[in-house]
From TrEMBL:
Residue ranges constituting the Ig-like domain according to the UniProt record: 305-392
Protein name, per record: Gliding motility-associated C-terminal domain-containing protein
Family annotation (Pfam families): CHU_C (PF13585)
Origin superkingdom: Bacteria
């Protein structure tokens, strides 16, 4: 079902208002929801907008609009989408253009369209759905609603569930004819056809209702944007006192509508611009399935008293007074109205004003009911209407359908005429009849303009189909090109071949079809002769010239190994690559030599590249040039320990050594270990460590170990500052790095304590105070967890 809010605003302006100063207002419009008919749920949505033809405003008018679809039961948004301008902008035709010009009644029609695919299974609610399009503003000159310049429009449409009882429910909205531009004369009876047609044959019922405002319009200060998407309910406009839906235009009688036909009637009793709205309800099998609403506006003017023109019409060359005629399809007939140089003329077909039909006579080729509306040229007076003349068109109606195509040298076109069954046929080529071609179809292989003359047997009318121009298309220019422009294939490489001239392609190599290859680009991996057939949009083909692809022989590239170097202070190394003529590269490489000083310590990649041909990528041989660091050993020259001790060597190595040799091996648990353990050492000994890294770079170092059997503690010492025996020396204590020495006074108080070896010898003081001469007990524990040595020490001070 199509919802159409079809609103035409006949704007009211004073005669003194210049046209260039007018703002452009939204006049009205309509919604239409048209089933496409291919698959369920596929619709074309059409929005028709009417606007004032303000020159600058029309130029700025947006060419898009936004719509929303909502579920009626809870106003849930189902879909929002955009429609875009789809047709040329047309002007609204007035019966009296003079009056329209005087009152600045110039309106333009904008048409927006959008294609939507709805999923029927998602639209099953029994209460149905609605669609809305909102925009603004109305004209400030409207006389029956409050604050009209701040009031907008809501175009509204309801449609039923798209799937009912598991079956798709097909429906389109009512469709409205183009609108005539009209104005009302004060005190004169006026009727206006306000009906619609329903594509599905559904029953339509009409009623007057209050127009809808835009939700959140400028008056509320919520949202001034045009074409907003928001759910209902939508607000009504506010009537001024004395006006309502059934009294929108005051009169005797006031504005009313025929419930069944949609015909409006009114005899206006008040000047002004009046807006009203009509609701059209759609019924199928007595059940309402949807509705549409449309606003409309009429301008009531004071028409000066004058004689109402009373035109008569006559069919030329026909019996006087004849009110109907029949013509053959393709022929024409002329209707002549009473000629009067002071009259304006506007011809209508089926009640709709015809564009550019403003002369006293009209040439007719289409069937319909024709009338002419006549008014005074220089006055906005009452109009006169002629009696209708009905024209029927008979004769065979045929439409030409064609298939196939004429290629440059081949091809054929099949043509068939579809139309009346009681007709004979004669085919024509370039205006000449084709002998013996009298069937309803024909196949041709030559170019030309073809049509069919149809003669209806019952009437004898001869009609002609439209013309089909069968033309040959240009020859397909197929071409193969390589990405590089070369015809040579490099070793272990591919070549991108690109075809042109068509939309699909078939490739061959050495005369054999390459199955499944239809793309314009083919990646060749081997040499050969490639060919291509291109097919254009018509199915015509063309074959490209052969493209011979030659294979460039591969090249074997070698680079001699490079001996490891110990440190950077070594001679430059000559690089040896084969075959000659290649290029050496890498850190430390200069031409054909490797310089360790430039490269520095490290593992360096050296390459030798040779190209099989100038356009080919190089073949690369790679070697590593190792500039190894010279190893170093950080090992103390000597060490003192005690007899029977077990400990581990912990030298610090650099240069990444991986081979170790200790000499001698006595007391060692492993003479090839980097950090061997010395077990139960008994005598003095000297060790030499020799190391070597993976590049063969060497280093050596030596350590001498002195072994003490015990620590000797003297009986006395003299800390008197004479430089002799001023501190308590303990020979052999160096062998015991974990020794603990404790000295007491005669009251058992500790006056000296040394842990983790005897690093600071006892100097006869305690806390910075000199101790007196006397005997001092001591304990010495050379090794943790072992028995301690105890004794007495005499501290002497010489007072001389």
């Amino acid at each position: 079902m199509r919802t159409s809010t079809f609103l035409v605003l006949l704007g009211f302006f004073t005669l003194t208002l210049p046209l260039r100063s007018r703002a452009t207002h939204q006049v009205g419009g309509q919604l239409e929801m048209k089933a496409v008919g291919d698959v369920p749920g596929h619709f074309k949505v059409i929005v028709t907008n009417y606007l004032e033809d303000g020159t600058q405003g029309i130029a700025r008018q947006s060419n898009t609009g936004n719509l929303g679809i909502f579920r009626k039961r809870d106003n849930t948004l189902m879909l929002s989408f955009t429609v875009r301008e789809s047709a040329a902008r047309q002007r609204v035709i007035y019966s009296n253009e003079y009056c329209a010009e005087m009152r600045n009644l110039k309106f333009v029609v904008f048409t927006y369209e959008g294609d939507i695919q709805l999923t029927p299974s998602a639209y099953t609610d029994s209460e149905g759905y609605y669609m809305s399009y909102q925009t603004r503003n109305r004209n400030a000159g409207i006389n029956n609603i409050s604050d009209p310049s701040q009031i907008g429009f809501t175009f509204y449409l309801e449609f039923p569930a798209l799937q009912q009882n598991g079956t798709a429910f097909n429906n389109s909205s009512p469709r409205f004819a183009p609108i005539n531009g009209e104005y009302l004369c004060l005190g004169e009876p006026f009727t206006f056809p306000f009906s619609a047609t329903d594509p599905d044959g559904d029953e339509l019922r009409y009623s007057l209702v209050t127009p809808l405002d835009q939700k959140g319009s400028g008056r509320t200060g919520q949202n001034n944007a045009q074409s907003i998407v928001s759910a209902g309910p939508y607000p009504d406009v506010t009537w001024l006192s004395g006006f309502n839906a059934t009294n929108a235009i005051p009169g005797s009688p006031s504005l009313s509508i025929n419930e069944r036909t949609g015909q409006l009637s009114v005899t206006a009793s008040q000047l002004g611009l009046f807006v009203f709205a009509v609701k059209v309800e759609e019924y199928r099998n007595g059940v309402k399935i949807g509705e549409v609403r449309r606003d409309f506006q009429f301008l009531v003017v004071d028409c000066p008293p004058s004689t109402v023109p009373d035109p008569t019409v006559q069919l030329q060359n026909r019996t006087l007074g004849l009110r109907d005629a029949t013509i053959c399809r393709g022929d024409s007939i002329v209707i002549q109205a009473t000629a009067n140089t002071s009259w304006n003329y506007q011809w209508r077909r089926n009640g709709i004003n015809l564009a550019n039909a403003t002369k006293p006579s009209l040439t007719i080729r289409e069937a319909g009911e024709y009338t002419v509306v006549v008014s005074q040229k220089v006055a906005c007076s009452k109009t006169g209407n002629s009696e209708p003349v009905t024209i029927r068109v008979v004769g065979a109606e045929g439409k030409l359908f064609a298939g196939g195509h004429l290629c440059a040298t081949t091809g054929s076109v099949q043509m068939k005429v579809v139309g009346s069954t009681d007709a004979t046929y004669q085919w024509y080529q370039n205006g000449q009849p084709l002998s013996g071609k009298t069937a309803d179809s024909i196949t041709v292989s030559q170019p030309g303009n073809y049509w069919v003359a149809l003669k209806q047997q019952t009437t004898g009318c001869v009609t002609r189909t439209d013309t089909f121009a069968a033309n040959r298309s240009p020859a397909v220019q197929a071409l193969i090109q390589s990405a590089t422009g070369s015809h040579r294939l490099c070793p272990q490489s591919t070549m991108a071949l690109t075809g042109s001239g068509g939309i699909s392609y078939s490739w061959q190599k050495d005369g054999q079809l390459l199955s499944g290859i239809t793309d314009p680009t083919y990646t060749a991996t081997t040499a050969g002769v490639y060919s291509l057939t291109a097919t254009d949009t018509y199915g015509c083909t063309g074959t490209a010239s052969d493209f011979a692809l030659e294979q460039i022989p591969p090249v074997t590239v070698t680079l001699d190994s490079i001996a490891d170097m110990c440190g950077t202070n070594v001679p430059m190394v000559a690089l040896q690559g084969s075959p000659p003529g290649g290029e050496y590269a890498g850190v430390g490489v200069a031409e054909s030599e490797f310089n360790a000083q430039t490269a520095g310590v490290g593992n360096h990649v050296v390459t030798y590249t040779v190209k099989a041909a100038p356009e080919c990528p190089g073949t690369v041989a790679t070697r590593r040039a190792v500039v190894a660091p010279v190893p170093t050993i950080q090992l103390t020259d000597s060490l003192i320990t005690y007899k029977g001790n077990t400990f581990t060597f912990n030298p610090v190595y650099t240069g990444n050594p991986n081979q170790f040799q200790w000499v001698s091996s006595t007391y060692l648990d492993n003479d090839h270990a980097a950090n061997p353990t010395i077990t139960n050492i008994l005598d003095d000994i000297t060790y030499t460590i020799a190391i070597q890294n993976s590049s063969g770079c060497e280093a050596k170092d030596t350590i001498h170990i002195t072994v003490f059997e015990r620590v000797w503690v003297p009986d006395a010492f003299t800390p008197n500052g004479d430089g002799m025996n001023d501190v308590l020396r303990l020979p052999g204590i160096e062998a015991f790095p974990d020794a603990v020495v404790t000295i007491f006074n005669r009251w058992g108080e500790v006056v000296y304590l040394s842990k983790n070896g005897y690093k600071q010898p006892f100097d006869g003081t305690s806390n910075g105070n000199a101790l007196p001469t006397g005997v001092y007990p001591y304990t010495l524990r050379p090794i943790p967890n072992k028995p301690s040595i105890e004794g007495r020490l005499l501290l002497l001070r010489d007072h001389n």
